[in-house]
Specification:
This protein is α/β, with parallel strands linked by helices. The chain is built from eight helices and twelve strands. The chain has one domain: Alpha-Beta Barrel (TIM Barrel), CATH 3.20.20. Strands 1, 2, 3, 4, 5, 6, 7, 8, 11 and 12 form a ten-stranded mixed beta sheet that branches. It is globular.
Length: 254
């Protein structure tokens, strides 16, 4: 496996030396409270000088989390991870909260309450970007986000960044976990190959940003070990960027 690591490092170093270092941003989902796993995640981010965006569930945040984050890694940004992270799919359909059986107006009202709560709790750390639970959002909800005060949307998939009228769509591309049958490490070989495939994609050129996706509450030892090897490599050879630099700027909640 060391050979695969060496090949990836060589490719990243080559891009850097050509003046087109890979732009990398990091999103971690499901934050609600200060836990040993979150502390470990932020310590790792700080040790590698990596900005990190915490997709946070508004309805279940621990009131102490904003205070504890205030003294944490200074490059932490908070995004909105739905409202309750509750499955509201129609019978027989895949899990979704930003969609499902409820009317559009009711869903948007919940999202607005969640956005206001995060803005109040986290202040300047909060960026009004929607990260839909399960990375699923119905078109009727996505279309309403710009008018509802959001500056961006982030799901998961190979699509490149899209910007229109101050609204940015920027997905994560590499999930270090696999989910079928329960959350577990996706495997070094699979993840290194996926990064190589993304680097081969024409969309990886120019200013496109590569999105790393983690879920700190579900990491096992193998996942942590992978990140502890990958992130220092990205610090050396890539261009870590913050969520604020990926997404269009916009007004925060009133």
């Amino acid at each position: 496996m060391d050979l695969e690591w060496e090949r990836l490092e060589a490719r990243l170093a080559h891009r850097r030396d050509e003046g087109r270092a890979l732009r990398v941003w990091w999103r971690d989902d499901d934050a609600t409270a200060w836990t040993p796993a979150l502390a470990r995640l932020l310590a790792l981010a700080e040790s590698c000088a990596m900005p990190i965006a915490l997709a946070t569930i508004p309805d279940t945040i621990d009131p102490e989390l904003p205070r504890l984050l205030a003294d944490a890694h200074p490059l932490v940004t908070v995004l909105q991870h739905g409202h309750r992270h509750r499955n509201e799919a129609r019978d027989g359909e895949r899990a979704v909260e930003c969609g499902g059986f409820r009317p559009t107006e009711a869903i948007l009202a919940d999202l607005h309450r969640g956005r206001h709560r995060l803005a109040e709790a986290f202040g300047e750390r909060f960026l009004p970007v929607m990260v839909p639970p399960w990375n699923r959002i119905e078109g009727r909800i996505a279309a309403a986000l710009p008018g509802a005060g959001y500056v961006g949307l982030s799901g998961f998939g190979s699509a490149g960044e899209r910007r229109e009228n101050g609204f940015t769509v920027a997905n994560a591309h590499l999930d270090v976990l696999r989910w079928k049958g329960g959350a577990r490490f996706a495997g070094e070989g699979k993840l290194l190959a996926a990064m190589g495939e993304w680097l081969d994609d024409p969309a990886a050129g120019g200013d496109a940003s590569f999105g790393l996706l983690t879920h700190h509450l579900d990491h096992d030892d193998a996942t942590w070990q992978f990140l502890e090897r990958l992130l220092p490599m990205l610090e050396r050879h890539a261009q870590p960027v913050s969520a604020a630099s990926v997404f269009a700027s916009g007004s925060r909640d009133e």
